[in-house]
Design brief:
homodimer; alpha/beta; 6-stranded mixed β-sheet
Chain lengths: 279, 279
């Protein structure tokens, strides 16, 4: 495993939850909380690449994951610095490499599915068709239930303000346990998954031992990102679309949907799930 | 009011709900239903513009609304035909105009907020800052409750498969009533709102007498699209982000959030709501 890349990163913070006064249906004033949403424009070697709308909880990780998933940077080692500045709502990324044809990389746009979407450049769809995850590892029913419970009790922006999606990534511990590595919320689930992807990239973590959880639906885009990271398990509290399922079948990804309490539904590759006997 | 534009449109249909076999947490097989999701690549006068991921319930309306909201076509009168072909997952749009610089129009990308996002080209944000909706009209509490109930009882893909967002548009009828004009579901709420926008454009309906409802959150993008359509009322079953609220304040839009049963919360411009006495 390579040493952790030496990236100079800002640690820009911003208020995530805001109190606002509203009226209820009887005209009575009450206070409530809503999540922030701000624009963040990414500049790659001074070239404007994209403007993302984000909660802003982990902007450096988001930038890193965006660059990774859009294939705009090949390795974290290529990045010299990421400086996020909320005064100007911008993220300046400086690379160590000579110039790359950013125009060519960003010429093809795909607007992906609603709740948890993003824009994917280039031939990501073609790339996916080449991915088949190896069989294994397995995850026990107890570990799945423990994972769902750890999400339930986790402190969150969602509990304070609603209106955000969470993504989390876990590692297996022993036969029946899991450990939460990262939990990230954003107004866009595509941002949350990109942020997690960025953190995994930075830590040089291979996806093959990881389990990915999201509160949002597993649409084509989410499954593509999971397959790109090489994560064999995608779990959601929500549902799955047909293209999400088809992509999971093609890439041999295990999908668990409607995860809640002790319940879940296995949509693909159930061989990776070990059921408890006598349950 | 101008005559309805003469556009030759296909009426492409495709299965929206799919039955799949899953395993529950005890390993028992069961059947469930999930929504379709497919790609639709828009070609404008033979130039590839974008690929949208969509449920596919109203592809021609989606194309029309996308072209409207991205400002790629100025008027429905400029469109000669829209031909959607699900064999090739493409929509061919032919205009009556001479060539326009599509490259210039599509050069700036904004990836908007997750659940209900999209890509907005050009200076839409700047355009919004010039919009201020006029005061009025008003909507009574009874009409709001009737609207929420009509959504509740409406037949939907959501009831059959979950995992889709709905958008609907209503017209006021008398002092306390509303009439549903269109109800559209999609895997992306940005697609659903674009589709509604397309239908309103085609019918040459001004937004000022309309009420817009969505099951998704009112993020910046949704409020921008509402303001662009000139709709004074945006209602959601879900929540609001801070930028959504700020944009509503700037454009004088009335926002009702957490609409459920007889309940709702007014986030902005409550002057447009007439409360029932003694409630």
């Amino acid at each position: 495993m390579a040493a952790k890349p030496n990236i100079q990163m800002s640690s820009a913070s911003v208020p995530l939850v805001h109190e606002v006064e509203v009226l209820d249906e009887a005209g009575r004033k009450k206070l409530t909380h809503i999540p922030g949403e701000r624009s963040l424009t990414i500049y790659l070697d001074k070239r404007e690449v994209v403007t993302l709308m984000t909660l802003g909880s982990a902007p450096e990780a988001l930038v890193l994951g965006y660059l990774r998933n859009q294939r705009l940077v090949e390795s974290p080692d290529d990045i010299e610095s990421i400086q996020v500045d909320w005064e100007t709502d911008s993220a300046a990324v400086k690379t160590r490499r000579s110039t790359v044809d950013i125009d060519a990389l960003t010429s093809k746009r795909v607007v992906t599915t609603g709740c948890g979407q993003g824009t994917m450049f280039g031939g990501l769809m073609e790339e996916i068709s080449a991915i088949t995850l190896p069989d294994g590892p397995q995850l026990s029913q107890e570990a799945i239930v423990a994972l769902i419970d750890s999400i339930r009790v986790h402190d969150s922006i969602y509990k304070r303000s609603g209106s955000v999606h969470a993504c989390a990534v876990f590692e297996r511990v022993g036969d029946h346990g899991v450990e939460l590595l990262h939990f990230i919320e954003d107004v866009g689930r595509h941002n949350a998954v990109d942020s997690i992807s960025g953190l995994m990239w930075l830590a040089n973590k291979s996806g093959k031992d990881l389990i990915f959880f999201t509160t949002g639906r597993l649409t084509s885009e989410m499954v593509i990102k999971g397959a790109q990271m090489g994560v064999p398990f995608l779990l959601t509290r929500s549902g799955v679309t047909l293209m999400g399922l088809e992509l999971a079948r093609k890439t041999n990804l295990t999908i668990l949907s409607r995860c809640s309490g002790k319940h879940f539904e296995i949509y693909n590759a159930p061989e990776r799930v070990i059921f408890t006997k006598n349950s």
